[in-house]
Amino acid sequence: MTIITTKKPFEEVLGALKGAKKITIVSCGSCAAMCQTGGTEGAEEMAKKLEEQGFQIKTVIVPEEVCDNRVMLKDFRKIDEDLNDTDAILTLSCGLGVASIVQTLEKKHPTIPVFIGTNTEFMGMTERIGRFYMRCRGCGDCLLNETGGICPITTCAKSLMNGPCGGMVKGKCEVGGYEKDCGWILIYERLKQLGRMDLFTKLRDPVDWSESGHQREVIWR
Ligand code: SF4
Ligand code: SF4
Does the beta carbon of 138 lie inside 6 Å of ligand 1? Predict the structure, then answer.
């Protein structure tokens, strides 16, 4: 699984960094590296572009996983002096990376602003580099056991629980101009293949979206 990111337009990044001069770049060595938005190459590209605009790059780090506070604590210890002389951090990671950095900096460098150079798209299944697909949205109440392993939340354009809807034509979905397969036809075909049409005819309640709401946490201890 990879959190899929794409590059923000450079002008937008410049706008965010307005007023800052000395920049530390934190570029994720995991998902963002896979998406070619971060990693060593992404960081080098960004550093060069910023330098051309007159910014001073204090330091560049490529942590293994920016979203892991333990990794960030360790890596920030190594660049503490640079952080003392940094106007802003530019993160090349998913949004989780920024949250992780802000939390990690809380004690020692709470006033350094943290900006992001990417847009976080979705958590994706990887077919190969450059081909990523949203197949789960982390709804918190997984239905895959009833749908032949095909997620109706992400595969049906309307996240319907009892499809297909009237917008299906010849197996294609009306949303997006009949280019994509209807998720519920895919589920139907799969359940038929598995001999589980009993699951297809089962009536499901509407999704309780409160399960996938804000500020969700999983805490073991
Ligand atoms: S139903 Fe779909 S969105 Fe929800 S957890 Fe399962 S795969 Fe993910
Ligand atoms: S046509 Fe199929 S995929 Fe599209 S919204 Fe209707 S049920 Fe969902």
Answer: yes
